[in-house]
Amino acid sequence: PKSFSGPIGQQLTCYEKLPVVDYGPIDCSIPDIDRNFWSKDEQYLMDISNEITLGNCPEDLANQDPGPLFHSRWLTAANQVLRLYVSSSDPSGNLN
């Protein structure tokens, strides 16, 4: 399947066109790891995760494509959910 059926999964079909809004930061400790060993998907995950802990997401990061959705690629699904979060001014309890 190329989509999810739940309420968050259904929103992942058009998330990349949504503007970034003011959203609440999520307190989290992210380790400092050498980025040279990471794939582009892993770098995006770390970049957007860091911005979510700060409570802002720059437009250049928001405009990056987190990649296509495939159930077998959990990393791109995680990237898409985080991108959806930075576009949700009032996220559901499932995102917050």
Fold and architecture overview:
With 96 residues, this protein is mainly α. The protein has a domain at 37-95. It has four helices and no strands. Helix 2 (40-54) packs parallel to helix 4. The protein starts with 6 loop residues before the first helix and ends in an 11-residue tail after the last helix. 12% of the residues are buried. The mean pLDDT is 79.
User: Cα distance, first to last residue?
Assistant: 26 Å
Helix fraction?
Answer: 25-40%
Number of strands: 0
Uncertain regions: pLDDT < 50 for 5+ in a row? none
Provide the structure class: mainly alpha
Rg to the nearest angstrom?
Answer: 13 Å
Topology:
Layout: H1 7-11, H2 40-54, H3 59-62, H4 74-85
Q: What is shown here, in short?
A:
This protein is 38% helix and 0% strand.
Any key phrases for this structure?
single chain; 96 residues; 4 helices
